[in-house]
Structures
1.
Amino acid sequence: MRYELFYWPGIQGRGEFVRLALEDAGASYDDVARRKGGINRMLATMGGRDKHPPFAPPFLKVGKLVIGQVAAILFYLGPRLKLAPRDEAGKLWLHQLQLTVTDFVKEIHDTHHPVGSGLYYEDQKPEARRYTENFLDERVQKYLGYFESVLRKSGGPYLAGRKVTYVDLSVFQLIEGLRYAFPRAMKDGETKISGLVAVRDRVAERSGVKTYLASPRRIAFNEMGIFRRYPELDL
Amino acid sequence: MRYELFYWPGIQGRGEFVRLALEDAGASYDDVARRKGGINRMLATMGGRDKHPPFAPPFLKVGKLVIGQVAAILFYLGPRLKLAPRDEAGKLWLHQLQLTVTDFVKEIHDTHHPVGSGLYYEDQKPEARRYTENFLDERVQKYLGYFESVLRKSGGPYLAGRKVTYVDLSVFQLIEGLRYAFPRAMKDGETKISGLVAVRDRVAERSGVKTYLASPRRIAFNEMGIFRRYPELDL
């Protein structure tokens, strides 16, 4: 089965959590919107060509199925890519963790867009500073501390236990992104999440991920994505 | 099977999307934290008594299974309560819609808490005003317009077509909540979403929902929940 991934070209963004799963598994997929004419196809699908239009990218097409929302895409792909267990309880637990990743990603996004995603960062800088101060003081540690405790309870070496899952790939991406966006804050914060950092290191060494990161398919972090380096926010 | 729902007492909040499904179906459930000692049981589960601690309420206990995240809970309950189809494609489509409800609910919450959920509204009033201006101008119509178009494409009378699902119950709650929080803005906005308003009316007449709304189990909207009536924000 060939997968078609639809996401904005030029950024890692939310699409990256799906890309990492596909790449780790060595799955065959098209990153449609990065090809000629792809953005138009993406917009046509969202605009209602399909009976089940997704609200926003990323979404995945598999035959006639169109699946939007990162966590739903990974829920679908997980067992098929051998990045999730097949039993209902195991699948639901992973999904729950991924939905918490989703919440965290939204809060990370809002560090540069606390007033509105349709406005420029430059038009919400004072609000961004105040939001980010609270975010770095309270929220980062709350989320990362939660995942660290989940890892500890699992017995390791991965968040769901003995086997790697798509949630571990997402934790890799979270740590990479937070290091990019908030290098100073993360330097202090990482001492408390040594388990997650070890997961990040293990994921980085996986052959599919390693090949991907060294390829031109991995877009560099930049100031259009979720994780942005604005030194004035890295308090 | 008796369900145990865990959520903060005193507010509808995110728990209400689950309550509406349980009540519509006439399911047998305990609203644990509204009983004596229930909050302690809730906090103990989150604090790690369980191997799979949820990040936050609401969560559902079914035997040994603990499911956090509203959309995941409804994904699990949907087919069991006959509020979702049983085929994979149908289940995923509903789940995708519910995840978009989740995103909308977070943006609604942020109208009074744009800087941080740990701070008082009173300490972020200027930011709340600016955020809400953009929210009412751009976001409400984007989300409601999306659901209205989904309804149209489905052929009706419900969002997934011929049969009522948990997503219709959530749309009921969204409209009720937005009417409570932003009566002036909604008065103008509702003309564009007549299909959704008809869904809301149909849901309100369902016997399980009707009984529930008239019972003391339905907590009134108030200024501790997701939907808050602050006249200065209803622009």
2.
Amino acid sequence: MPSSFADRLAEAVRRLGSPVVVGLDPRWEELPEALRSRRGNNYESKAAAYGIFCREVIDVVAPLVPAVKPQAAFFEELGPPGMTALAEVIAHAHARGLLVIVDGKRNDIGSTATAYARGYLGRGQSAWNADALTVSPYLGDDSLVPFVDVAHERGAGLFVLVKTSNPGGGMLQDIVSDGQPLYRRVAEHVEQLAAGAAGDCGYGSIGAVVGATYPAQLAELRAAMPHAWLLVPGYGSQGGTAADVAGGFDEGGLGAIVNNSRGILFAYRRPEYAERFGAVRWQAAAEAATLDMIAQLRAETRAGRLGQA
Amino acid sequence: MPSSFADRLAEAVRRLGSPVVVGLDPRWEELPEALRSRRGNNYESKAAAYGIFCREVIDVVAPLVPAVKPQAAFFEELGPPGMTALAEVIAHAHARGLLVIVDGKRNDIGSTATAYARGYLGRGQSAWNADALTVSPYLGDDSLVPFVDVAHERGAGLFVLVKTSNPGGGMLQDIVSDGQPLYRRVAEHVEQLAAGAAGDCGYGSIGAVVGATYPAQLAELRAAMPHAWLLVPGYGSQGGTAADVAGGFDEGGLGAIVNNSRGILFAYRRPEYAERFGAVRWQAAAEAATLDMIAQLRAETRAGRLGQA
């Protein structure tokens, strides 16, 4: 196994010819009826259902994608039982050969940031065993140092929020000062961190979150951060298309991983899959949606140039 | 019990004549030897020690302060057992009559933000039962809406990061655009949210985090956000003094709560308390440090004008 997160990610993306990340966002109201109806409505029961649901998703997508991205919020919503389910889901993803990016958007200062970093980063080296974690930059460069140090020390990765996919993200991220939007400053900082420790694949383990819903900025940020992996949310239910994310890939088809959560997890509720599969075959619907997304990215982006084993 | 977080906080601050928040940041290396030595070194044992430590701190500070602020990072560092300890610590603080501000600096977009808000906010109404939560604004105004809505619905509170206490906070927070630093924009947004739903005490339940280490900005932000409670970190071990936080209080001595974590929790290691109490009487040292901090704030700030029961 390559020692840096960046190289492990590149290896998996190339091997599978797939830059897709499946976001594990269990949402109680959208879970297949069979998983909801056989259980009570308390936190423990819901957490158990989330665990089963995510493990079953992992089982179908593991041969197809390099990584899953559990969204901490949905597990945290259930309190301690949810956190236990999160840990189990991470372990199951690893057992199935997947990289795990914990989406926690954590940040704090000094030794508190170190506690987050030590707690999350590093498979077999931390309580949560994440291969990578999303972090927020609002507290500034010194708040990122402990995360970067621990990531490098443990061969783990980070994705720093740069340009998020939501409409209101621009409130702070687009503020222009000295002719430069704020997100570009964050991007320059991320590029420095990434370039300082680039792996064999050409990318470093400090990456950036850039939303699929801003295609022009995605291409701009691909150019501004030539050493940073981009984690691209906003595909599918948020409106981002394969054409929208095309600008995120480099010439060889590497450099971006595109997340889809609801569009895959709850594909059985989407018109294009509902009739073919129905709620009972929700796993098959998730698998089909993953395959369709991979095909779309291969057809409409440079991800089509990725070699396949 | 008043229905808004802002009014409950004002009632407690006035009743006790104390604007002090005790930050619950258990750090393994700094725990009293007796708590470390009788246990193993695994996550479960450490989490159990954190639980005992925080409950014993709570027992001595509960008659003296309105609120405690558990720092999620230190509990998360220990994985699921740490999260169970966090839930127990919150329950114990409530049993002792304290308000609980969970310091998680959470943020996300849309329904993910809603999951965080529903999971954390509201005593007896959420898995974590927090009276208030710290949140980050990097994702913009729409990312705060779900937190604000749930807070209002449940009589809970928020503290939005505005100007943090660390040296590097200025990297983004001090960026000037149209003659205004970024933190002022965030402050204006917080003031709007706070003013829109101010309670009987004159303050709303949407407050701001403003560090003690920037006294001039603290006074500036007190004026800019007349309806927002300020949660002031950075006192004590980060260098902030009573004089530094003076600008955070309004004419009547309300409006700011000042956090101290290490300076109280680990007072037994500080020269001024070590000899008097020693490691064995670490609880008495924490109590003395709390009383000293209250006395300093009463002597050197308008908190001295708070009525006492």
